[in-house]
Amino acid sequence: MKFRLNYLFTLAAILFLCSCDSSNQKAGTEEKFFDSCSVAVKDENTKLAEQMVSPGYTGELNNYWGDDTTKLDFKHVFDMGRIVKSIFYYENGNVQEEYTYKCGSLHGVRKRYYKDGALFQKIPYRYGRMEGVGEEFSEKGVLRIRIVFKADSIISKQEF
Questions:
Q1: Half-sphere exposure of 50 (CA within 13 A, CB side)
Q2: Which of 9, 23, 40, 82 has its CA 20 to 30 A from that of 60?
Q3: CA-to-CA separations, 62 to 107, 112, 127, 133, 152, in angstroms, rounded
Q4: Region 23-27: what's the mean pLDDT?
Q5: pLDDT of residue 3
Q6: Using CA atoms, how far apart are residues 127 and 108, in angstroms rounded to an integer?
Q7: 84: phi then psi, degrees, rounded to nearest 5
Q8: What's the start-to-end Cα distance of the chain, in Å?
C-alpha cells in the first residue's frame, strides 16, 4: 500500500510538472510568435518613406518648412533602408509627434505634443497595434485620461 501511494504521488508530481512545462512552453511559443514581423500590421506611410531613400541607406531624411532649412517639417531616421523613427515638427520648431517603427509598423510609444512642447499623449504600439497603457495630459502636464489597450481594443479607460 505504501509503495502504491508513493507511486501515485510520484506520478501526480510528474504529471503536474509536465503540465506546467507544456503550458510555459505554449506561452513562450505564443510570445515568440507575437514578437515577430510575421504578425506586424504594415503601415502604408513606412512604405512611402522607405521609397524616398536608397536600399541599405542608414541616416536621416529631413524635410523643411518651405525654403527655410533651419525649420524642420519632419525627419525620418533609417537603418539599412528601413525606417526606424519619424519626428514631425510644428512651424515654431517644437516636436509635434514622434513614432518608432519595427518591421514596417508602429512599434514603441507614439508621443504627441502641444504646440508649446508639453506632452499631450503617449500611446504604446506593438507591431502596429495599440498595446499597453496610454495616457493623455493637460497642457499643464496633469494626467487626464489613462487607457489600457490590448490588440487595438480598449480594455479600460479612466478619466481623472
A1: 19
A2: 40
A3: 21, 19, 25, 31, 31
A4: 43
A5: 45
A6: 8
A7: -120, -20
A8: 64
